[in-house]
Design a protein that fits this description.
434 Repressor (Amino-terminal Domain); two-stranded antiparallel sheet; 48% helix
């Protein structure tokens, strides 16, 4: 059985996910030549509000993520995968293996 993660490990994984999402948004903005001011205008909000959302330091809601993704012409795809998967062994036995310690963020 896998060992339970510590609160610090849990928090670090959350931060990694938030930073990963922010990096995906920044990458899309750069590909399209969009600035934070462009995004703010598109969303009818302020540039500092966009900066805060894209900083990776604040937890954004799914609504904010949806708005930002739409502003850069993207859609969102979320997939939940088990941290532990069953691995077939011999004669019907199975083993368990932890897939990853880091959240996976995939650009759609």
């Amino acid at each position: 059985m896998a060992q339970r993660e510590t609160p610090l490990e849990h928090r670090l994984k959350q931060k990694a996910l938030i930073h990963g999402v922010a990096e995906l948004l920044w990458a899309q903005m750069n590909r399209q030549g969009l600035t934070k001011a462009d995004i703010a205008r598109n969303l009818g909000t302020s540039r500092p509000a966009v900066s805060m959302a894209l900083s990776g330091e604040h937890n954004m809601t799914l609504r904010t993520l949806w708005d930002l993704a739409s502003a850069v012409g993207c859609r969102i795809r979320i997939d939940l995968v088990p941290e532990v998967v069953e691995i077939p062994l011999t004669r019907g036995e199975t083993g368990r293996e932890k897939v990853t310690d880091k959240p996976i963020v995939v650009a759609a």
